[in-house]
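Researcher: We plan to redesign the surface later, but first we want a full-length starting point. Tokens attached.
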């Protein structure tokens, strides 16, 4: 460390902060600028796709843009993925009925009178969000639903259960959902939860028709598969639990839209003129709302936008650090290598220069990781689930690790084979971040492959512990492996070059 600080001081003429200032400012500026441009653009693109895919009603004029309120719905899940007979093939599936139920709530049927934005948390976290007014209601699924259902199916097939059990889904409703004769609860239960329940019930019925009391299939069961499947035709019941919370707000009526006309197209052109005029300004609309009428940071595209901006910022830190250090050392700024065009370096070995660049990268990565974490979590203000401090720390570690991988790879390629290839590595890194950011999944709402955006959302509380570990742990291990590999390759390559070409000096 002493020799490294000596090299940094000598390169900067006794002012090592000068080496750090420009890469840090450049990375932060690019991150902020990228986020300011990307967040509204992606939100507007998502909104345009939703508008195109929604069927147009030719029989009546469209309702005013601002006439449909949007509510947050917390979905409490404590379940685990379980092996079971495949629903649509002869193989096996690894499914969570709770996750399947949540997917149907989020992407299935919708309520005509209002919009909803579903988020998964722990059961306690979901209930707490209703009590503090963050969510209008919570849907609490039974604990360990999937393994319990599988065990009950086998037990019923074996004859140890007289009748198939039912599983209660609890609706935790606050004052807002209970107002107007339980308007929000009734509509959401009838139009959204009913469809999700039917979908998962069909899955359970299919699995019950394939499972037997003996996993090996060597013995006959007292009840046939068809009898077992019939017994599990209606596995769910619902119960409403009322909790206290903030006083309800009338979001359906306004002075210009009387209550008796709610949901009906009006014959007067004035009420629709203002919203239509605002809707013609995509930049202003997207800057304030996502495709669901919520702020941008609640939209599906916010996390992908932050990840892409983080990628741009990290790559900028790496390229700027390399430029500043190479310029201070008197190196050519554009090099093609590895060794033929890289002239002998005096008085600093290449490994010392790479170490200085990595030191600058460490500071830049720490700052970018912190800023990106604040953008994603809002330090708890954007609806982080249970144990918010731990989740914010987990997101901080994950985003910092991602930025460190990008910086180390770009610097390693830059110093091992030249700045031209370093620039190509930066472009490749950005393409990878964009592809893995979750933007495609946010637009299609159907992607199932794990990506960086999904891992970030899971760390924020949108999933049970097993799901978080199954996705976050392998991703983190892969990033750590890439980071270590890049550091080893870079330091080894520059060491080999130093032994062959650079002047050996003692840095103290």
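Model: Full-length starting sequence:
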């Amino acid at each position: 460390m002493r020799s490294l600080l000596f090299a940094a001081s000598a390169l900067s003429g006794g002012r090592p902060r000068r080496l750090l200032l420009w890469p840090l400012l450049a990375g932060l500026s690019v991150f902020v600028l990228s986020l300011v441009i990307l967040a509204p653009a992606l939100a507007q693109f998502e909104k345009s796709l939703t508008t195109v895919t929604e069927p147009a009603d030719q029989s009546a004029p469209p309702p005013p843009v601002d006439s449909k309120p949007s509510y947050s719905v917390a979905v409490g899940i404590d379940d685990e993925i379980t092996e079971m007979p495949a629903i649509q093939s002869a193989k096996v599936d690894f499914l969570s009925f709770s996750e399947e139920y949540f997917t149907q709530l989020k992407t299935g049927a919708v309520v005509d009178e209002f919009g909803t934005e579903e988020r998964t948390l722990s059961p306690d976290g979901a209930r707490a969000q209703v009590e503090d007014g963050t969510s209008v209601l919570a849907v609490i699924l039974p604990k360990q639903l999937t393994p319990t259902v599988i065990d009950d199916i086998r037990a019923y097939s074996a004859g140890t259960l007289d009748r198939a059990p039912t599983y209660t889904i609890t609706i935790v409703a606050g004052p807002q959902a209970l107002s107007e004769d339980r308007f929000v609860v009734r509509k959401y239960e009838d139009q959204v939860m009913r469809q999700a329940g039917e979908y998962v019930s069909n899955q359970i019925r299919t699995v019950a028709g394939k499972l037997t009391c003996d996993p090996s299939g060597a013995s006959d069961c007292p009840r046939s598969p068809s009898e077992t499947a019939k017994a599990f035709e209606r596995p769910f019941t619902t119960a409403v639990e009322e909790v206290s919370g903030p006083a309800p707000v009338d979001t359906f009526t306004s002075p210009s839209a009387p209550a008796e006309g709610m949901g009906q197209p009006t014959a007067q052109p004035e009420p629709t003129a203002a919203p239509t005029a605002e809707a013609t300004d995509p930049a202003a609309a997207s800057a304030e709302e996502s495709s669901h009428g919520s702020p941008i940071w609640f939209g599906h595209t916010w996390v992908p936008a932050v990840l892409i901006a983080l990628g741009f910022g990290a790559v900028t830190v790496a390229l700027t650090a390399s430029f500043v250090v190479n310029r201070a050392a008197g190196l050519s700024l554009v090099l093609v290598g590895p060794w033929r065009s890289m002239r002998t370096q005096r008085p600093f070995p290449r490994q010392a220069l790479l170490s200085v660049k990595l030191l600058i990268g460490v500071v830049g990565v720490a700052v970018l990781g912190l800023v990106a974490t604040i953008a994603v979590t809002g330090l708890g203000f954007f609806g982080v689930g249970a144990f918010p401090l731990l989740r914010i720390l987990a997101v901080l570690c994950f985003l910092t690790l991602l930025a460190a991988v990008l910086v180390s790879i770009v610097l390693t390629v830059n110093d091992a084979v030249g700045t031209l290839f370093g620039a190509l590595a930066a472009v490749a890194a950005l393409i990878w971040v964009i592809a893995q950011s979750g933007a495609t999944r946010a637009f299609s709402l159907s992607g199932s492959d794990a990506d960086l955006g999904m891992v970030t959302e899971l760390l924020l509380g949108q999933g049970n512990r097993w799901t978080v570990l199954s996705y976050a742990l392998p991703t983190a291990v892969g990033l750590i492996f890439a980071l270590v590999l890049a550091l080893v390759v870079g330091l080894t390559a520059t060491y080999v070059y130093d032994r062959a070409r650079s002047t050996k000096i003692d840095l103290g």
